[in-house]
Structure formats: structure tokens, C-alpha cells
Amino acid sequence: MHWRSIRRNNVTVRGDGEQTLVLAHGFGCDQNMWRALEPFLAGFRLVFFDYTGSGRSDLSQFDPVRHSQLEGFAEDLGEICDALDLRDATLVGHSVSSMIGLMAAIERPERFSKLIMVCPSPCFLNLPGYTGGFERADLEELLALMDRNYIGWATHLAPVVTGEPAGSELSQELSGSFCSTDPFTAKIFAEATFLSDHRGLLGHSPHPVLILQSARDVLAPPAVGDYLRSSLPQAQMEIIDADGHYLHMTHPEIVAQNIRHFVEVHTHV
């Protein structure tokens, strides 16, 4: 029964606006990472959740097979939408959730009408004819560090992806979020995130897409945003003058302005 996903994924709904936003967090995070953005989204109905294995989700429901691929997380998201009986919602996905959200929208096109991708990437690997930003050996070494020294991995990664010093408030918060995630589930989610290639999905996108691209993002550089814009059938991109991979935390007001404008333009009356 899909209603079980409400408890499994710690779903919370706030606001009573006519337009629904489903906010899907990235790897190593939880729904709390949207708190800086939420005050700027008054007037929307907001759906928050934690992916299975993250935040305050039901850890017992994490399936090492199902969740070894992003498709498993997309099915979880789809079940949440089924349980809430969402129609024509807007999916706001950060980082890997952009691809997870795209999968859910392809499988359940009636649930969503628009997709907003914050710092997205369909593939983090450098492959022939495509620059994702990382060599496979470098990513495998980073993943191996999770096994050897999980705290050290979190402390190292946080300032790299936030674009801020290790002692900054944001880097410390992100490092704490990484560390609060169960290492077993985190490793499986990390492998699904960083070693997958979902470029083949892009041409099947059924809805308009807004890409919010950080001007200086180590994880998802502007070249990746350009690739997405040219590969998605109905995509537009806004480049925000910012450092790091967490625009919704560092520039929430600008992100909210873009969300509002995109939803307004693409809402059918």
C-alpha cells in the first residue's frame, strides 16, 4: 500500500496553496536542507520527505538491492506522490534528485507538470565525448575513503562541494548531515549517485524543465548544465553567480524567485 510511504519517508506537508512543490533533497542530506528556502515559498503547498536511508526515514525499509540504483529511489518518490494523489505538481530536485525526479516524472507523468533542477548532473564521470567532472578512479577513491574513514570523508567532502572553508557554518552543517547518515546506506546511495550514467533519460523528459546552475560548482560545473539544457526537450537554464553546489541554501531568495516565475509561466489556467 502506497500510504506506507508516508511513514517510510517521513513525509510532511505544509502550506495550502493551489500549486504544489515537491522538494527532493540530494545525497547525504534530508528535508531539513530546504529550511532556508521555505520562508520564500509562502503561498505554495510544500511536500517534504527523506529518502529511504536518509534523515528520519524508516531505516528498516532500506533495501540494498532496490536502492543500489537511482530507480529504487525514484519508485519511492512515485509512491509518495501516489499516496498523496498529487496532480500537476512541480518537482524541485537538488543534485541527484534531478535525475530521480526525472525518472519519477517519466513513469508517472500525470503527477508532475514541471521539473526544476538545482545544480543537476546526469553523470558525474568523464566519458568519451562527455565531461562530467571526475575520473572514475578519483570517484572510486573517494568512495573507498567512506569505508576507511567515514568521518574523514565527510569532513573532506563538505567544503569541496559547498565552495566554502571547512570551518564555515554551511560546511560544518553539511559535514554533520553526512555524518548523521548511516554509513551503510550512505555508501550504497553514493555509488548509485556518482557512478551512474543517466544521460539516456534526458530525451524522454515529458515536461518543461528549469535548470538552476551555479556559476562555480565543482560537482556539477556549468558545462554539465549546458549539456542538460541542450539534451532536455523543453529546458531553460538560469546561471546564478554563486559558489558551490547548494544554491537553495546559499541563495534561497534568488532560487525562490526563479521557482515562482517558472511556475507562473508554465501554469495552465
UniProtKB/TrEMBL annotation:
Q: Any idea what this protein is called?
A: Alpha/beta hydrolase
Cross-referenced InterPro entries: AB_hydrolase_1, AB_hydrolase_fold
Record Gene3D superfamilies: alpha/beta hydrolase
Which Pfam families does the record cross-reference, listed alphabetically? Abhydrolase_1
Keyword field contains NAD: no
The record's family statement is: Belongs to the AB hydrolase superfamily.
Checking SUPFAM superfamilies in the record gives: alpha/beta-Hydrolases
Q: Which domain of life is it from?
A: Bacteria
Going by the UniProt record, its keywords in alphabetical order are: Hydrolase
GO-annotated molecular function: hydrolase activity
| Domain AB hydrolase-1, first and last residues per copy | 20-252
